[in-house]
Structure to design on (559 residues):
């Protein structure tokens, strides 16, 4: 048994080395994107030959990309508002409404997460064709909202299940009505969950692909669709620059999340 | 009856908007898709529309469609397996790490790729693996290879790209489950003479089975519905079900056949969810977790 400490140390080393490798695997492609965005050559070159801003200039000067970026932001903001309102109120009803069959209803509210989003896109596309409504922005926003609601429901439910219901009872014992208890006790305490859900809804909508694929109208596309169409034919630095812009947005969101509500709460997503 | 109605709080009404939204924009469209898949045409614009099984007959009669369905499932299975094997150790590390800063850094390295967008991450892999990508240029530059290796346009590159994209979902699902397992159980096993490896395989791993199942189901569902990565990494060479569905809409405008293919994808997903719930029920029944 003298070799036990060594095998233990060796095992520990393998464990750490493997995990560091996984982190590198996760982050390396993203680092590569930065390299290509800053590289001045019109094609991919590695190792890089210099640093330039020309791809960022091209990206921000491109009307197609800018229109797509603004349209994506517009859709994401509308989706965030809708998904947060629908999702947070549904979560409250599920956690506090003493609804019969609330477990089944929760499963239904979360089901868009488990079913392929491309089906939601296809089904909505066919419905809009049958109803002959064309491809309106509200139709796209509602599609995004359906797949974002599960995130809001989950984060809000997680907070509602964890908090002390005696606080609500205390408020009511002190004479507050159901509505006042909600606005002065429940809402402030569930805010972190609702906010986290809202951030997720924004990201889900901003990066949404399969639903947009079916529901955008040509010439009026979201950023992921425009990037995808560009990628099919070109592989130059503009895509790199566009990617860096969206990565920076994402990192800002994550850092903001950690600062405001902490990251532990997403461990269950 | 009266007693149950009285116990339902007025807050329950807050479910109504979402219920209506889901009914109109989720279940109704899914139902319409099922209906369209058995109709001979569009009932709104055509008059003599009849029920037909021709789209399903077409899927069943042509082995090409079987091949596409099997490719989709195979890619899903390999992606799920790879994400589990690579993601589990990371999730275990995250669940057991002590420092708050270390945890936050790891969480960020998991969340950053997750929030980066599928198109961007697929571009990253193309930039790495294409004939003029970073790997080939480095190897050529070092004089190790004469002509570029073809690393892209095969099933392996699709699985690689998808694994990278969906690992975060696996890790986030597992971290919570592993974190809830009492570490003292492992210590007890070790005190009783089990090696750390044996303690892991006999205590931690079985207890994290619900997380493994949930994460695997999530990754599989995402992988079989992926569109961007199979197209770009496969270079239009490998056909999957979502690609076929979109092709039917965009180039053939065969809505009925697309709906039938959609129903096949739906059936696969539902079968998995049912199997998942069954297995989860069996596990928690045995151990009485709840």
């Amino acid at each position: 048994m003298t070799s036990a400490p060594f095998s233990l140390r060796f095992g520990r080393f393998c464990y750490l080395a493997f995990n560091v490798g996984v982190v590198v695997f996760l982050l390396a492609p993203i680092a590569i994107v930065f390299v290509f965005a800053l590289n001045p050559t019109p094609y991919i070159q590695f190792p890089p030959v210099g640093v330039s801003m020309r791809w960022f200039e091209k990206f921000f000067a491109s009307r197609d990309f800018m229109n797509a970026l603004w349209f994506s932001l517009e859709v994401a903001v509308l989706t965030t508002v809708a998904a947060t309102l629908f999702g947070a109120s549904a979560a409250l009803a599920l956690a506090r409404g003493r609804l019969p069959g609330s477990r089944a209803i929760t499963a239904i509210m979360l089901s868009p997460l488990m079913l392929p989003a491309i089906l939601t896109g296809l089904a909505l596309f066919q419905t809009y064709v049958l109803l002959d409504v064309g491809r309106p922005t509200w139709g796209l926003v509602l599609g995004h909202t359906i797949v974002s609601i599960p995130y809001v429901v989950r984060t809000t439910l997680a907070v509602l299940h964890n908090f002390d219901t005696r606080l609500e009872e205390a408020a009511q014992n002190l004479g507050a009505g159901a509505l006042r208890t909600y606005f002065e006790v429940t809402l402030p305490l569930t805010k972190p969950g609702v906010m986290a859900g809202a951030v997720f809804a924004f990201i889900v909508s901003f990066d949404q692909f399969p639903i947009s694929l079916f529901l955008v109208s040509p010439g009026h596309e979201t950023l992921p669709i425009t990037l995808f169409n560009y990628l099919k034919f070109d592989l130059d630095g503009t895509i790199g620059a566009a990617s860096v812009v969206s990565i920076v947005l994402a990192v800002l969101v994550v850092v903001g999340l950690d600062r405001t509500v902490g990251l532990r709460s997403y461990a269950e997503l | 009856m009266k007693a149950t109605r009285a116990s339902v709080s007025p807050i329950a009404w807050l479910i109504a908007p979402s219920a209506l939204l889901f009914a109109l924009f989720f279940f109704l469209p899914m139902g319409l898709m099922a209906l369209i898949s058995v109709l001979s045409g569009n009932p709104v614009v055509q008059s003599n529309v009849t029920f037909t099984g021709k789209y399903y007959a077409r899927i069943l009669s042509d082995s090409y469609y079987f091949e596409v369905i099997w490719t989709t499932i195979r890619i899903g299975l390999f992606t799920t397996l790879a994400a589990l094997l690579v993601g589990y150790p990371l999730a275990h590390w995250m669940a057991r790490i002590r420092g708050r800063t270390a945890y936050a850094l790891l969480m960020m390295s998991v969340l950053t790729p997750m929030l980066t967008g599928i198109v961007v991450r697929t571009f990253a892999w193309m930039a790495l693996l294409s004939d003029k990508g970073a790997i080939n240029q480095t190897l050529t530059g070092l004089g190790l290879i004469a002509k570029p290796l073809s690393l892209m346009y095969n099933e392996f590159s699709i699985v690689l790209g998808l694994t990278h994209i969906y690992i975060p979902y696996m890790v986030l699902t597992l971290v919570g489950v592993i974190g809830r397992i009492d570490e003292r159980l492992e210590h007890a096993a070790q005190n009783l003479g089990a090696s750390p490896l044996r303690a892991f395989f006999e205590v931690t791993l079985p207890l994290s089975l619900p997380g493994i199942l949930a994460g695997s189901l999530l990754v599989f569902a995402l992988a079989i519905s992926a569109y961007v990565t199979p197209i770009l990494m496969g270079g239009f060479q490998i056909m999957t079900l979502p690609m076929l569905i979109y092709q039917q809409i965009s180039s053939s405008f065969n809505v009925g056949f697309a709906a039938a293919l959609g129903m096949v994808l739906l059936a696969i997903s539902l079968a998995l969810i049912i199997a998942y719930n069954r297995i989860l029920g069996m596990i928690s029944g045995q151990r009485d977790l709840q």
The CA atoms of residues 83 and 149 of chain A lie 5 Å apart.
